[in-house]
């Protein structure tokens, strides 16, 4: 089993930065860790993913160049640095992990393990 716990959310102003962290515990039963977000009334949306062993990353087009996903394998932690945040990015951000291939990493259905989610609110 894998447990994921997010931290670092909060309220920021448009244009500000925020860093989310995801601490994993349990066995390393995953090949990818990812961040998704879900705004009220909308479907869960892929944000970024990272290959746990090799560090290869993938980003949604909407965040490319502003967000950076990283991982610390020694601490079993994945982080998401978010810069130039916009109000439309207000959502609950979820950390996820799964034993998947690179073909499936953008689909939430590919991930077995999920954190409880953390609120990010961007005020205009």
Structure explained in plain terms:
- With 124 residues, this protein is mostly beta strands.
- 0% of the residues lie in helices and 52% in strands.
- It has no helices and eleven strands.
- The strands form two sheets. Strands 2, 4, 5, 6, 9, 10 and 11 form a seven-stranded mixed sheet that branches. Strands 1-3-8-7 form a four-stranded antiparallel sheet, with no helix packed on it.
- The protein starts with a strand and ends with a strand.
- The mean pLDDT is 95.
Question: Could you give a short account of the major beta sheet?
Answer: 7 strands, mixed
Q: Residue ranges: pLDDT <50 for 5 or more in a row?
A: none
In N-to-C order, the SSE pattern is: EEEEEEEEEEE
- The shape, in one word, is globular
Distance between the termini: 40 Å
| Number of H/I helices | 0
Report Rg: 13 Å
Helix-residue proportion: under 10%
Overall number of strands: 11
What is the averaged pLDDT score? 95
Which band does the percent of strand residues land in?
A: over 45%
SSE class: mainly beta
